[in-house]
């Protein structure tokens, strides 16, 4: 019998986030180009008397440990589908910034789903797992799949993308989080009275990914939520400026923020930009990571 399963799941950065008009269901259609980057949470699941969640890591105190935790919701969703109890202890070893626009909660949801599937021997198909992921949240399917992908619909309909080599990033973690619904609502407010076009992926950006061309990618990146995130958190403008001044090829808000992402040309440049951001006094912490990296992966089965 399997006593525990540990899954590793990456964070994401959105290299393009084109946001369409508000839909009647409260979501927005997207052209969402995801890249999985090498910052990981680890989710370990083991049998228990009842569903329980624990979390360790620098941001652990900000993570809910009740049934709203996406890892708990994933375990409950899989258990319900297979007519069993979700009596497991889920432990999250958290390295992805919380409420930072890097899909940390989504990563834990995808990780818990894969871990429970392995622990219980459910044998759910990839399609079934992706269906459950989409029910849990718009970013969760990508956390399962990883690599690079174009997300359409609300971001859950994924097409894998070809990427040559790796892109290097520096992430500046801000104090406190931003609520994703609040950032989308601010985006709607800022665009009120304007005609919002249907979101389309940038051909130049997809080509830059295929070519592994960081300079071309830098010229093509874009995030329609950036002005909304900066409007809600004006101090992000100083962080973006500090990274640009330090030589980043591109500076952008990661997803709904408030983490900011800086594309750089290589590892040496990443260290230079990271040092400048650390001493700039404009952020709480700085992380360096590259991508694409694989999605949720079983690390250990005991
Ligand atoms: C900003 C991104 O991280 C970019 O990848 C995602 O779009 C957010 O994905 P997520 O955190 O998984 O979001 P969900 O849990 O699905 O939705 C939370 C809330 O965000 C808003 N939301 C989310 C996705 C989307 N395409 N349109 C939206 O308007 C809605 O208000 C929704 O109620
Ligand atoms: N396992 C989890 N880890 C972190 N936050 C979680 C988790 N489960 C639920 N949450 C809740 O979700 C909120 C958003 O956290 P999360 O780290 O997923 O944000 P995010 O990275 O901005 O997400 P996204 O990029 O998908 O919009 C948190 O404030 C927290 O209340």
From TrEMBL:
Any Pfam family: GHMP_kinases_C
Pathway: Isoprenoid biosynthesis; isopentenyl diphosphate biosynthesis via DXP pathway; isopentenyl diphosphate from 1-deoxy-D-xylulose 5-phosphate: step 3/6
GHMP kinase C-terminal domain mapped to chain residues: 206-280
Annotated keywords: ATP-binding, Isoprene biosynthesis, Kinase, Nucleotide-binding, Transferase
Enzyme Commission designation: 2.7.1.148
GO molecular function annotation: 4-(cytidine 5'-diphospho)-2-C-methyl-D-erythritol kinase activity; ATP binding
List of residues binding ATP: 97-107
Residues the record marks as active site: 12, 139
Domain GHMP kinase N-terminal: 69-147
Domain of life of the source: Bacteria
Catalytic activity as recorded in UniProt: 4-CDP-2-C-methyl-D-erythritol + ATP = 4-CDP-2-C-methyl-D-erythritol 2-phosphate + ADP + H(+)
Biological process annotations from GO: isopentenyl diphosphate biosynthetic process, methylerythritol 4-phosphate pathway; terpenoid biosynthetic process
Family of the protein in this entry: Belongs to the GHMP kinase family. IspE subfamily.
Function: Catalyzes the phosphorylation of the position 2 hydroxy group of 4-diphosphocytidyl-2C-methyl-D-erythritol.
Protein name, as recorded: 4-diphosphocytidyl-2-C-methyl-D-erythritol kinase
Annotated source species: Streptomyces cinnamoneus (Streptoverticillium cinnamoneum)
Gene behind the chain: ispE
């Amino acid at each position: 019998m399997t006593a525990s399963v540990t899954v590793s799941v990456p964070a994401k950065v959105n290299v393009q986030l084109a946001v369409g008009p508000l839909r009647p269901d409260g979501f927005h259609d997207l052209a969402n180009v995801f890249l999985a980057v090498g910052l990981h949470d680890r989710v370990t699941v083991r049998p228990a008397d009842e569903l329980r969640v624990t979390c360790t890591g620098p941001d652990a105190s900000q993570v809910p440990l009740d049934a709203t935790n996406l890892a708990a919701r994933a375990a409950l969703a899989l258990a319900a589908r297979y007519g069993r109890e979700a009596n497991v202890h889920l432990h999250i070893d958290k390295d992805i910034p919380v409420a930072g626009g890097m899909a940390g909660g989504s990563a834990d949801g995808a990780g818990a789903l894969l871990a429970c599937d392995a622990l219980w021997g459910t044998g759910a198909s990839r399609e079934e797992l992706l269906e459950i992921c989409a029910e849990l949240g718009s970013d969760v399917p990508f956390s399962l799949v990883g690599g690079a992908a174009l997300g359409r619909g609300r971001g859950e309909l994924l097409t894998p993308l070809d990427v040559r080599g790796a892109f290097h990033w520096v992430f500046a973690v801000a104090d406190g989080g931003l609520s994703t619904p609040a950032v989308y609502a601010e985006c709607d407010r800022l665009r009120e009275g304007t005609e919002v076009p249907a979101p389309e992926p940038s051909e130049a950006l997809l080509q830059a990914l295929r070519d592994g061309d960081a300079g071309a990618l830098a010229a093509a990146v874009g995030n329609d939520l950036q002005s909304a995130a900066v409007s809600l958190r004006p101090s992000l403008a100083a962080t973006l400026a500090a990274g640009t001044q330090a030589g980043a090829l591109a500076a952008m808000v990661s997803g709904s923020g408030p983490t900011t992402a800086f594309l750089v040309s290589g590892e040496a440049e990443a260290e230079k930009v990271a040092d400048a951001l650390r001493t700039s006094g404009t952020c709480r912490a700085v992380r360096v990571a590259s991508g694409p990296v694989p999605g949720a992966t079983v690390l250990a089965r005991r």
